[in-house]
Amino acid sequence: MRKSISLILIASLITASCGWRDSRVNPRNWFGNSRDVPVEVVDAEANPLIPRQRRGALAREERPDASVPIASVIELNVEPTTSGAIVHATGIAERQGAFQARLVPDNPELEPTDGVLSFSFRVLYPNQATPVGSEFSRTIHEAYSLTLDELARIRVIRVVAAGNARETRRR
């Protein structure tokens, strides 16, 4: 009887330790709050005359990526899941009507550079002119899922927009 009571007491204390606000054991504290960081503005684009490798003889021609970086990133959150984490980013588009938002990893193999995994927040705009509208009507939400194996090598997650970037660090 004493052993079962002591085991229950120890198990409850260990479980309660995960609830501390700044505990590293608590999965909700794996990444801190995001912060605004400066971004380099690069005008150089990839050479469109160099063909990309095809998948096979019967593969279709891939359409060129017409997406552009969103105007700014205003929020970045990383929420843990049982299989890894979900990166949530919120951005403000230049005008209304932006669609097909994506968080595109800078490295397609998801290999972090010096522990930093960087994403580009990209959207498409309609061909016809659309009004600018309010900030609320231009707000875009997007998410990207990461596995536990991918998270093991990542210390910082960064989302880059046209005008700014936000990053969050692992605690």
Automatic annotation (TrEMBL):
<protein>
    <recommendedName>
        <fullName>Lipoprotein</fullName>
    </recommendedName>
</protein>
